[in-house]
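Write out this protein's structure.
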Amino acid sequence: MNSTPALGASTGRAALALLWSLLAAGALLVGAPARADDPMPRPPALERDVQFWIRVYSQVDTNAGFLHDQYNLGVVYDTLHFAPGASTAERQRQVDEARARIAAALRRIADAADGATLTSDDQRIKELWGAEGTPSRLRTAVDDIRFQLGQADRFRGGLIRSGAWETHIAETLANLGLPAELAVLPHVESSFNPSAYSKVGAAGLWQFMRSTGRRYMRIDGAVDDRLDPFRSTEAAAQLLAYNYRVLGTWPLALTAYNHGTEGVRRAKEQLGTDDIARIVRTYSSRTFGFASRNFYVSFLAALEIDRNPEKYFGALQKSSEAHFQELQLPAYISASSLERTLKIDATRLRELNPALLPSVWNGAQRIPKAYRLRLPQDGTQWSGQLLAQRLSADEMFSGQRGPRRYKVAQGDTLAALAERYGVPIETLARLNRLRTSAHLTPGHVLSVPETTPTLVAAAAAPPPPPAVPAAPAPAASAAIVAAVAPPSPGGAVSPDVAQRESAEDAAAAAAATAAASAKPHAAAALSQPVSAAQAEALGPALGPAAESEQNADPTDYSVAKDDTIRVAAVETLGHYADWLGITSARLREINHLKFKTPVRIGQRIKLDFAAVTPEVFETLRHEYHRELQAAFFAGHRIVGTEVYIARSGDSGWTLTAHAVGVPLWLLQQYNPDLDLAALHPGTQIVMPRVEEVGAGG
């Protein structure tokens, strides 16, 4: 499978229509795994769930919502309507009162003797449950009453905004041989708002978590490609292709986009099935909650509406496609130098390059070498060579601005400092050779990135342009201008207002929204959130994408019931002994291993939990692999895959010589079902291709 090429200017509406028709006919499957006739099946057993999300996306807006049972989505107790401009507290009060009323009714119905007289509302609720409404089930349902905020205004705005990127999305999917239906996923993730944030820190059009995004994109103190709808589209296509390769079906691949590849793989193995309906209905896990159970059905609902927008929203006109040229920078260059040399307004340059963080625009960081800068498609046709000729020698640099020093104060934590300086905690830890969980000692001097300290809520994304109007968008080269959330209903705080707040105001807003989120079912009149704090305030109101884990590592690091584990790549007995607080000799003894005999990938190892619990061991094991992977993806990214046919004598270690720069653990992730220690000649092995961050933009 080849990587997606960089795409610049439009191929036109006609080309888009041709692409969609070819994809639908299965004519553009370039190196993809074999597809079923219907890659996105709609199981009858999940139809009530699909219909629920169709209602959420098309019938009620963000000034209303449903009180429903979280397991039986066919049971919608009530539709709540909020007064325009109602405060978060007022909305919460209304939700709490309605929930208490329904809970009382469920108890009365469950306790009523046969033939007892019920109120008309009690009878209505009883009929909602039908034969399933046994007394025991209704008593359980008291704790399962959930509120879901409506999304119709957001979804309609997303349909309009999608026009700016739909051609690029279609081309990207076609180049990787992926189903065209995947193009609607941003409706579920972000309502096609490239500045959107979730309460767990996912960002952008495709809502990438930072750790997963760094597998495919550049994310550092100067650039966050998650906020670029074009680069993040290419990354999302790679992640979806990877999920499909590991899990084998598109319903599971999509569920893994939210729940993580490891989690879905474990569900598949535990139940012995890849039937999405059975997994949704019967799989039980601490992390497989409402969001994970509903991710695929909400996708199907979005697909239904996207295919028939006029049926649900009447006539609407999508935003014009984005037009631009791309310039690969020949060196590290400051934004001010580029503005002067290119003679492009700073605001316009910022709109076209949303991945460049505030640290770039305030001069604390330079735009990196090889970055593909987006420019208007008018006037001078720029090239790296022409730019180098126009810049003076003292305006081009071979590296980024270096780190500076910070003396740790009482109460400082690594996480708080990482947030303050707008960098991942892994980056700050690696810069100082610390664990991410390290406790800081007051007076200790740390190296910190040379950026202006700022709140993430205020600096998470460049200020978005004006909101999309309800009227047809003008055909402009600045189609990216249309790529923001619709105006907030009822006078709520909108993204453009939130991002213009001062640091002090942003801090106050973050504190207020965090307080509002203390109640789990709070609803808020905020528009699509552009910070984790705003998203947290919305809580469950955001829908199934809000709890995304999106861990792309498919390895099962858990301890089995018989106290054994399966050896993963780059693990040794020494690691296990450290995490268990025992000696390697003890592990060799209970596993009957001779001295100096190494463990091999896939081997079952018995553990001794005399000193620590299995939960502590699992935590330490996960942390080791997270740090290992974070360190690698700080400097590398995956740009595609290729197939290698095993020869006689090949093993996991010899394969790393063929896949230059690919660590063994990454090779194992792309081939989780292969025994890399015992390969047979002729076996097909998927080899990820990696490059250094910045080598190609």
